[in-house]
Amino acid sequence: VVLMDPSEDPDDILRANRSRENTFVFDVVFDHRATQEEVYVSTTKSLIGGVISGYNATIFAYGPTGAGKTYTMLGTDCEPGIYIRTLDDLFKAPEATTEEMDYRVSMSYLEIYNKVIRDLLNPSSGFLDLREDPRGSLQIAGIMEVSTTNAQEIMQLLMKGNKQHTQEPTAANRTSSRSRAVLQVTVTQKSRRKAIGKEARIGKLFMVDLAGSERAAQNQGKRMKEGAHINRSLLALGNCINALSEKGGSRAQFVNFRDSKLTRLLKDSLGGNSRTVMIAHISPASTSFEESRMTLIYAYRAKNIKTQV
């Protein structure tokens, strides 16, 4: 990706050697002609086999407000996004091997808004707590888990959940998602043979539609306060990514996952046995040059994370 500064004057001799043109290298880059199917196949499809055999995976949608994160993740009825395509494939894959194995696919859909967790499938349950169970894995107390194999039903649930999603008109986008939406899919696999029936493999797949990052100057009042919470949790995520991507520095980096609810929830997906994909969205508009630049730097840094299995 080559990013050029729109305000740069090609005839300005004084700045000729100080061009703000930036180049970034990613695994794959899509332009405006890419279809939902193309994006899905190149980013997420390859992770599904891993989730079924018990590894964790995470997909992030990151970028400034209005660059298309929710479209990529949720999509529309006729152009479904990554959520639906992934779940579709997750339901199809076990059918091939159900002779000896029992599969259960369950999902929960939540949002983190102003530092509190809400269940999008059951909004009446109020704010939920993040607790650690004796095995050290994080659980959200009282969250509704839905187990279904019907993709149509899932789409309706997600659309219903998305209507509960905290959206507010901001100066940058009329239906801006002001919260981080996390779709968590758990695949449990048990053997049908009695002798080894006690062993279960559990793979977790997190799909995260991050709230839009934007300049504080774009919003006033309540929106600005909200933006501060959003930016703080994105900063916490950024700090974790920085610490994880430091290539064997002089001292072992401490990764502070407890800085925000988002990073605490995603602790297993950023480090450990997880494969993580970040889909960074940028806008071609010259007015969002700064946002695009920051997004690309952030994603480029995330690319350097090497996890220790």
From TrEMBL:
Localization of this protein: Cytoplasm, Cytoskeleton
Domain Kinesin motor as annotated: residue spans: 1-305
GO CC annotations on file: microtubule
GO molecular function: ATP binding; microtubule binding; microtubule motor activity
GO biological process, one term: microtubule-based movement
SUPFAM superfamilies: P-loop containing nucleoside triphosphate hydrolases (SSF52540)
InterPro entries xref list: Kinesin-like_fam, Kinesin_motor_CS, Kinesin_motor_dom, Kinesin_motor_dom_sf, P-loop_NTPase
KW Cytoplasm (keyword) present: yes
Superkingdom assignment: Eukaryota
Main location group: cytoplasm
UniProt-annotated binding residues for ATP: 63-70
Pfam families attached to this UniProt entry: Kinesin (PF00225)
Family: Belongs to the TRAFAC class myosin-kinesin ATPase superfamily. Kinesin family.
Name recorded for this polypeptide: Kinesin-like protein
Organism: Eudyptes sclateri
